[in-house]
Design goal:
The protein is of the alpha+beta class. It is built from 13 helices and seven strands. The longest helix has 22 residues. Helix 1 packs antiparallel against helix 2 and helix 4 runs antiparallel to helix 5. The protein folds into two domains: 161 residues, no CATH class; 174 residues, Aminopeptidase. Strand 4, helix 12 and strand 5 form a beta-alpha-beta unit.
Length: 341
């Protein structure tokens, strides 16, 4: 059992390493899920019950972080779960080590990249102590590598290591008031006042169309978004004939997606923090918008046309990459683009 546990630990580490060489985010997550399952088997074979239960729970927690924007709520929810794990695990001081390590790691990633690195050092150091108690040398060794790499980040230069682009896009199916607040803060930072919506209006439009937001995230942090609305043909035509930026939508202008009914889409906003505006992010946002449209068509929605008022260079770069046609200049800096699907 002991030898078998070490073999599972080695294979888990190999999958974990290979995940960093995967180009697609879905494959990264898939590889790391396999790695986590193998680590769980490793702890099971060693009878390390707290390590097993915490590792299983962390897998579910990470899926929650990826699929939703309710990071704080997920973290708060973990606390009673950890109390339950303490009751059903080993009756010794060892229970505290992996539970506290997981709590520190979970709390630190909610703050910033820098606190996540420091939290990772503390968390992995505690896991080393737990692994060595069970003579789990392979997993202790891999945790030590993570500690050394995080220490290198802190000592050699935080920005040199963390200036990598690890962003991803996700459809904002679960959007909270806190999310709306963050999106509104992004709007205020990157749009002129005449193009701003209030959080109340953003929330009202989201309730009418639940799939309207594509979120750009870095870890658990929202760093940008795309807002796509399904509008009626009358409103679409008004936009196409307008000589100003037309975004005075009323609730009746926003339509639900109905199969086989003509859909007219408007890309209302494309916002991303300046430090992330590079070719990699542009490709990810472009691909996310194209995927959004493809999925709508695949589900039987008759998408006819899509348009967008472009009010900055970053928006224009993405819209042009999507092969939109410039219809007219609204001002010297604002343009109307459209595309037939």
């Amino acid at each position: 059992m002991y030898v078998l546990a070490q073999i599972f630990g080695i294979v888990a580490w190999v999958f974990f390493l290979l995940s960093y060489y995967s180009k697609r985010l879905n494959k990264v997550i898939f590889m790391q899920m396999i790695s986590s399952i193998l680590y769980c088997i490793n702890y099971l074979l060693l009878g390390a019950w707290t390590g097993l239960f915490v590792s299983l729970f962390e897998m579910l927690k990470e899926i929650g972080y990826y699929k939703t924007d309710k990071d704080k709520y997920i973290f708060i929810f973990t606390i009673p779960i950890y109390v339950l794990i303490a009751f059903i695990s080993e009756r010794s001081f060892l229970v505290v080590i992996p539970i506290l390590a997981s709590l520190i790691d979970g709390f630190s990633i909610l703050k910033s990249k820098k606190t996540a690195v420091v939290g990772g050092i503390i968390s992995n150091a505690m896991w080393i102590v737990y692994d060595l108690w069970y003579l789990d040398y392979i997993v202790a060794f891999t945790d030590a590598i993570l500690v050394i790499s995080n220490l290198s980040i802190v000592l050699y230069g935080y920005s040199k290591f963390l200036h990598r682009n690890n962003t991803y896009t996700v459809l904002g199916v679960y959007v909270t008031k806190d999310t709306i607040k963050r999106l509104n803060e992004l709007d205020k930072a990157y749009y002129d006042s005449e193009y701003l919506w209030t959080p109340k209006k953003m929330n009202e439009l989201y309730k009418l169309e639940k799939n309207s937001y594509i979120l750009m995230k870095d870890g658990s942090k929202i760093i940008g978004y795309v807002n796509i609305l399904n509008i009626d043909k009358k409103t679409y035509d008004k936009m196409m004939n307008s000589d100003v930026v037309y975004d005075t939508f009323d609730s009746e202008d926003i339509l639900p997606f109905i199969k086989n009914k003509e859909c007219y889409l408007n890309i209302n906003s494309i916002v991303l923090k300046n430090e992330y505006q590079n070719s990699d992010s542009i490709n990810k946002i472009t691909n996310a918008i194209e995927k959004y449209i493809r999925l709508k068509i695949k589900k039987g929605y008759n998408v006819k046309c899509i348009n967008s008022f472009v009010v900055n260079e970053f928006e224009e770069e993405i819209i042009r990459k999507l092969n939109f046609t410039k219809e007219k200049n609204i001002t010297n800096e604002v343009y109307l683009y459209s595309k037939s699907i």
